[in-house]
From TrEMBL, chain A:
Pathway: Carbohydrate metabolism; tricarboxylic acid cycle. It is found in: Cell inner membrane. This is Succinate dehydrogenase hydrophobic membrane anchor subunit. It comes from the Bacteria. The heme is bound between the two transmembrane subunits.
From TrEMBL, chain B:
Part of an enzyme complex containing four subunits: a flavoprotein, an iron-sulfur protein, plus two membrane-anchoring proteins, SdhC and SdhD. The complex can form homotrimers. It is found in: Cell inner membrane. GO terms for molecular function: electron transfer activity; metal ion binding. This is Succinate dehydrogenase cytochrome b556 subunit. Pfam families: Sdh_cyt (PF01127). Belongs to the cytochrome b560 family. PANTHER family: SUCCINATE DEHYDROGENASE CYTOCHROME B560 SUBUNIT, SUCCINATE DEHYDROGENASE CYTOCHROME B560 SUBUNIT, MITOCHONDRIAL. Keywords: Cell inner membrane, Cell membrane, Electron transport, Heme, Iron, Membrane, Metal-binding, Transmembrane, Transmembrane helix, Transport, Tricarboxylic acid cycle. One of its GO terms (biological process) is tricarboxylic acid cycle. It comes from Marinobacter nauticus. The chain crosses the membrane at residues 78-98, 118-136, 157-178.
Length: 115, 179
C-alpha cells in the first residue's frame, strides 16, 4: 500500500498480471515480425522506409511502443519493489522510469508520423 | 557383516535405516542409535546454519542471498529481470537509430556507418542478446501460464532449454552483427 499502490500501472496485482501478459504477446509478435523482416529482406533505405510508410505498420509499431511502456512499467515496478526497501528512493526510481517511458512514447510517435 | 543400500545384516540382527539427512551420521555410540549431526558439519557451521536460525528466530531476518546456492530456474529468472532492465535502457539506442534511419537516405547511411564501429556492434549485440534471452524466457513464462513446465523436473528442464535455445540465438545474432 502507500507508495506502492501509487506507482503501479494497474489498480491491483491481477491487472498488472494481465497487462504484463497482453503486452508480452504484442511484443513477441512485433519482435518476431521484425526479425523475420531482417532475415528475409535485403534491408536498404527503400525497403526500410517503405515498411514504416505503411499505415498498418505505423499502428503495429505504436501498439508495440505502448506495450513496451506498459510491460516495462509492470516489470520495473516489480523488480524495484523487490529490491529497494526504503520508500522514497523506490518512489523516485519508479517515477523516473515512468517519465522515461513517457518520453519513449512521445519520441516514438514523432518518429512514426514524422512530426 | 554385509551392508547393502542401508540394510545391515549382523548376527541375525537386521536394521533397516531411512536415508541419512545431509550432514548427519547414524550414531551407534549414543544410548539410543539415532541420526545426529556429523562432527565435520558441527565444526564447519559453528552453532546453526543461517537459514535455520532465521526460520527459528522470532525476529524477522533478512537472509544473506550471497550465501545461498541458486538452482538453475532461479538463475534463469534473475537473468530475465536483468535482461529486461538492459532492454529498457537499450530502447533509447534503438529509437535513436530508428529516428536517424527514417530521417532520409543520408540518415540511413549514417546509421550503417555508425554500425561499422566496434563499440556500436558491441552495444547492438548486447541489446539483441538481452532481447533474445528475454523473448525465450518470456515464452517459457507464457507456457507456464498454460500449465506446461510447472513441476520440479519439467521446470528444471525448461530452465535448461531456455539457456540452450538463447545461447544458440545469441551466437547467431553475434554472427549476424559481426559478419
Amino acid at each position: 500500500m502507500g507508495m506502492n499502490s501509487v506507482t503501479n500501472i494497474g489498480r491491483n496485482g491481477i491487472q498488472d498480471w494481465i497487462i504484463q501478459r497482453v503486452t508480452a504477446y504484442v511484443l513477441a509478435l512485433y519482435t518476431l515480425f521484425l526479425l523475420g523482416f531482417f532475415v528475409t529482406t535485403d534491408v536498404d533505405y527503400q525497403a526500410w522506409s517503405a515498411l514504416f510508410a505503411q499505415g498498418w505498420f505505423k499502428i503495429f509499431s505504436l501498439l508495440a511502443l505502448l506495450s513496451i511502456a506498459g510491460h516495462a512499467w509492470v516489470g520495473l515496478w516489480t523488480v524495484s519493489t523487490d529490491y529497494i526497501k526504503s520508500a522514497m528512493p523506490r518512489f523516485l526510481l519508479q517515477a523516473a522510469c515512468v517519465l522515461v517511458m513517457f518520453v519513449y512514447v512521445v519520441w516514438g510517435i514523432q518518429i512514426l508520423w514524422g512530426l | 557383516m554385509h551392508r547393502l543400500m542401508g540394510l545391515s545384516i549382523a548376527s541375525y540382527r537386521v536394521v533397516i535405516r531411512p536415508p541419512e539427512p545431509i550432514g548427519y551420521r547414524y550414531r551407534t555410540d549414543s544410548p539410543v542409535p539415532t541420526y545426529q549431526p556429523s562432527a565435520t558439519v558441527l565444526r564447519s557451521r559453528g552453532t546453526k546454519r543461517e537459514c535455520e536460525s532465521a526460520v527459528n528466530s522470532k525476529r524477522p531476518v533478512n537472509l544473506d542471498l550471497g550465501k545461498f546456492h541458486f538452482p538453475l530456474p532461479a538463475i534463469t529468472s534473475i537473468l530475465h529481470r536483468i535482461s529486461g532492465i538492459i532492454i529498457f535502457v537499450g530502447v533509447a539506442f534503438l529509437m535513436y537509430g530508428l529516428d536517424l534511419s527514417l530521417s532520409g537516405e543520408d540518415g540511413f547511411n549514417r546509421v550503417n556507418e555508425l554500425l561499422d564501429s566496434f563499440l556500436a556492434k558491441l552495444i547492438i549485440w548486447g541489446i539483441l542478446s538481452a532481447l533474445l534471452y528475454h523473448l525465450v524466457a518470456g515464452i517459457k513464462h507464457l507456457l507456464m501460464d498454460a500449465g506446461i513446465g510447472e513441476e520440479l523436473e519439467s521446470g528444471r528442464l525448461a530452465a535448461k532449454a531456455t539457456i540452450a535455445v538463447s545461447v544458440v540465438l545469441i551466437v547467431l545474432a553475434g554472427v549476424w552483427v559481426w559478419a
